[in-house]
């Protein structure tokens, strides 16, 4: 009897189940506010789209083109701010394991160098945004739409440095498992942006009717508000202010800067690969005409919103995998990654069902269901059917990519993403859209194929790398 009671064998499966359930709970605790923050950021863009859609179809299309250029430029500068999170997570895991107290200084240096990266890249990126009109004209867009997009950008561009700065502060907070403060800031930013959109686009509350330029100013002001509010939180909240991120702010620490650069550059390029594929699709829609472009903007907004949930789960996985890796716990790192991938896949299966059942009802939230908009809505419904098909693989690829980021693996995912999107997805989309005359529907099938290849390759890489000793 005593030998039987001492045998730990029957307890091992129960312990493993408990470990997985505990990981799921901890991951959700981080992922829910992170996903909500991502949704809040997308809600700001969606607010612009909705209000511009009610202003005119032409404004909606021009706003789509302007956001295409802006978002791509934002990605070029966001790699190092996003690298702040996994670097801090490793610091936390390392010092948690060794019971040392040097983490405050190391974390502060990482945040400082993240802010330095924003200061260094903002001016050249702003200079690039000045050339929105000639860039779009060179890419074959209609002159009137290119001019309107440039008008929108002339207001929006000034919020770019503050958007990047907010990303640094958000990464700092979430890497310390404090995901709620960025969510609270973004919730207030939604109200800020919606109020100024309504006032400046349509000319309410005694303010001038500025249309596209007003939408750009409203979004830029919301970025400024987000950065200032998040900075105030970091300097005042007890759990964050002890890191004293403003201390010795103007003193460089080049080894930390080099680490952020080494990790952040491939992170930024990876995101550019993916987003450039979708932005390239928007440019192709512009060639097909106004109806295709407006339908694409409506249809891409929906999966962009649903994508924020697995992205939030993936961001939480970066922290959990990073902390476990920093502590040298390979089993915990693998468990965190696989839990995130499963959660992302499960959620996207549900959203796929919604897009299949109610595509037209969803599309009419962005554009009124009137005869003048019938061509746009018909195309949007067909695009949403394809979006439903790629929801699952989109959720898998982003959670796998973010889990790899927690391992500080960035270069491998960069090459896998580039191959998946530009050697697989883009050629298929071009062939179907232009070669076989399927136009926008063919372009969307190419997007789906690229995401499928990315999901398979990135998940396989995480499976292989997570088996190696840490």
Could you walk me through the main structural features you see in this protein, from its secondary elements to its overall organization?
There is one protein chain. The chain is mainly α. It is 85% helix and 0% strand. The protein has helices at 2-6, 11-55, 57-98, 103-129, 132-138, 143-156, 160-175, 180-202, 212-236, 238-241, 254-288, 290-326, 330-357, 359-363, 374-406, 411-435, 439-465. The longest helix has 45 residues, at 11-55. The protein is globular and about 60 Å long. The mean pLDDT is 86.
List keywords for this structure.
mainly alpha; 470 residues; 17 helices; globular
Tell me the helix content. over 70%
Total discrete domains:
1
* Secondary-structure element order, N to C: HHHHHHHHHHHHHHHHH
Query: What portion of residues belong to β-strands?
Result: under 5%
Number of strands: 0
This entry's quaternary arrangement is single chain
Low-confidence region ranges: none
State the secondary-structure class. mainly alpha
Question: Count of DSSP helices?
Answer: 17
**Quick one: overall form?**
globular
Care to give the gist of this entry?
By secondary structure, this protein is mainly alpha-helical.
């Amino acid at each position: 009897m005593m030998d039987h009671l001492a045998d730990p064998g029957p307890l091992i499966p129960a312990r493993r189940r408990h470990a997985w359930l505990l990981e799921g709970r901890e991951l959700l605790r981080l992922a829910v506010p992170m996903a909500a923050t991502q949704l809040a950021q997308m809600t700001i863009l969606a607010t612009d789209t909705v209000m511009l859609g009610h202003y005119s179809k032409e404004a909606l299309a021009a706003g789509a083109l302007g956001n295409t250029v802006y978002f791509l430029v934002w990605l070029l500068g966001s790699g190092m701010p996003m690298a702040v999170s996994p670097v801090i997570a490793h610091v936390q895991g390392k010092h948690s394991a060794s019971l040392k107290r040097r983490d405050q200084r190391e974390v502060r240096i990482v945040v400082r160098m993240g802010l330095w990266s924003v200061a260094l890249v903002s001016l050249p990126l702003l200079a690039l945004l000045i050339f929105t009109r000639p860039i779009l004209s060179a890419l074959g867009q209609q002159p009137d739409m290119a001019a309107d997009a440039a008008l929108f950008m002339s207001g929006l561009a000034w919020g770019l440095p503050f958007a990047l700065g907010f990303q640094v502060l958000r990464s700092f907070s979430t890497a310390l498992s404090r995901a709620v403060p960025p969510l609270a800031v973004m919730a207030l930013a939604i109200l800020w942006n919606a109020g100024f959109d309504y006032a400046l686009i349509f000319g309410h509350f005694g303010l001038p009717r500025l249309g596209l330029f007003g939408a750009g100013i409203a979004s830029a002001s919301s970025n400024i508000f987000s950065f200032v509010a998040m900075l105030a939180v970091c300097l005042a909240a007890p759990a964050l202010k002890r890191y004293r991120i403003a201390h010795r702010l103007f003193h460089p620490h080049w080894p930390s800067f080099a680490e952020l650069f080494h990790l952040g550059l491939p992170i930024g390029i990876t995101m550019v690969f993916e987003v450039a594929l979708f932005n390239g699709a928007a440019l192709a829609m512009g060639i097909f005409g106004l109806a295709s472009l407006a339908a694409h903007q409506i249809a891409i907004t929906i999966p962009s919103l649903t994508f924020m949930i697995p992205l939030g789960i993936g961001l939480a996985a970066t922290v959990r995998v990073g902390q476990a890796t920093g502590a040298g716990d390979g089993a915990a790192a693998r468990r965190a990654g696989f839990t995130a991938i499963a959660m992302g896949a499960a959620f996207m299966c549900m959203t796929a069902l919604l897009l299949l059942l109610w595509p037209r009802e969803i599309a009419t939230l962005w554009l009124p269901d009137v005869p003048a908009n019938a061509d746009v809505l018909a195309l949007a419904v067909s695009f949403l059917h394809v979006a439903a098909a790629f929801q699952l693989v989109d959720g898998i690829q982003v959670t796998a990519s973010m889990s790899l980021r927690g391992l500080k693996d960035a270069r491998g995912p960069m090459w896998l993403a580039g191959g998946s999107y530009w050697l697989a997805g883009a050629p298929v989309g071009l062939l179907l859209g232009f070669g076989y005359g399927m136009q926008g529907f063919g372009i969307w099938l190419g997007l789906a194929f690229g995401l499928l290849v990315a999901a398979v390759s990135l998940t396989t890489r995480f499976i292989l790398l997570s088996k190696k000793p840490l």
